[in-house]
Each structure stands twice: as C-alpha cells, then as structure tokens.
Amino acid sequence: MSEQTTNTQEPQFAIQRIYIKDVSFESPKAPEIFLKEWKPAVNLDLNTRQNTLEDSMYEVVLTISATAKIDEDVAFIAEIQQAGIFLIKGLDGDTISHMLGAFCPNLLFPYARAALDSLVIKGSFPALMLAPINFDALYAQELERMQQQGSTQKQ
C-alpha cells in the first residue's frame, strides 16, 4: 500500500439504494368528479429531509404532494416519499450539506415524478408531467432564508 493512499481519503459518493418509503392516493369525489370538465387547479408541495444512518451513510427523503381541484371539489390527492441511501465520504461539512440538500434530491426526483404520474394515471386522471425542479436554487434560497432568520434573531 502506498503512503499516498493511507494519508489521504479520496472523496466518495455512491448510491446504495433508491426506494419508495411511502405512497398515498385518494380521489374523494370519484366517480362524480369524472363527469366534470377537466380544468383542475393543481397545488404541489415539495419537501426534503435527511437522516444520518451511520458514519458516511445518509438517507434522503423527497416528498411530493399534489392536490388537484375542480372548483372546490378535490379530484385527487397524491403523495410520494421517494427515498435513497447514499454513501458520502471525504468531503467537508458544507459540501455534504449541499449534496444532501440539492444533489441527492436531484437524483431522486425522476423516480418520484414517474411514481406520482403512475399513481395519477391509475386513478384515471391525466398524468401530471411535472417540470424539472432546480434543487440547487431551492437549496440556495433555503440557506439565504436561514441566514436572514439568524441575523434577525440576533438583533
């Protein structure tokens, strides 16, 4: 073994597993909702959270909730918690935080989008066809919000 490999730790990133943690679908106004013209108002909620499983192993959970209404009637509520287990080693705390807050959700999003579309289609509604989401921008906004909140609390 060379001296170089024992003294430096190369940065490592590996996907260990991607899985659905929780899924939910309901159509409380079916079948009457199918008789209405399909011009829904769709509300999307997006959330991420992270858990440290053990040294260098992290779980990231991306939650997407979609509620479609026609007038005041709820056509459907669909929610997916798409999760992944990631190995992240040899990086500083800020970089790990960015990986968990932006990079990993970017990896999970296509799986969550496909699962959510499948749920909605199986409920006999048109697919949602969610546009890509810029998790880097969302992460930067959250950091800025936390910094502003921190400076406000100090005053």
Unreliable segments (pLDDT under 50, ≥5 consecutive)?
Answer: 2-7
Widest sheet, order of strands: 1-4-3-2
Spell out the CATH superfamily: SecB-like
Task: Determine the fraction of residues in helical runs and give it as a percent range.
Answer: 25-40%
Residue share in β-strands: 35-45%
Question: What's the CATH first level?
Answer: Alpha Beta
CATH fold topology: Bacterial Protein-export protein SecB
Query: What's the overall average pLDDT, rounded?
Result: 92
What gyration radius follows from the Cα positions, in whole Å?
Answer: 20 Å
- DSSP, total strands: 4
Structural class: alpha+beta
Shape: elongated
User: What series of H and E elements makes up the topology?
Assistant: HEEEEHH
Biggest sheet record: 4 strands, antiparallel
Q: What is the number of helical segments per DSSP (H or I, 4+ residues)?
A: 3
How far apart the termini lie comes to: 55 Å
The assigned CATH architecture is Roll
Question: Into how many domains do the coordinates divide?
Answer: 1
Characterization of the model:
Strands 1-4-3-2 form a four-stranded antiparallel sheet. Helices cover 35% and strands 39% of the residues. It has 155 residues and is α+β, with helices and mostly antiparallel strands. The protein has helices spanning 3-7, 93-122, 135-154, and strands at 12-26, 41-54, 57-70, 73-89. It has one domain: SecB-like (Bacterial Protein-export protein SecB), CATH 3.10.420. Residues 2-7 have low confidence and may be disordered. The chain is built from three helices and four strands, in the order H-E-E-E-E-H-H. It is elongated and about 65 Å long.
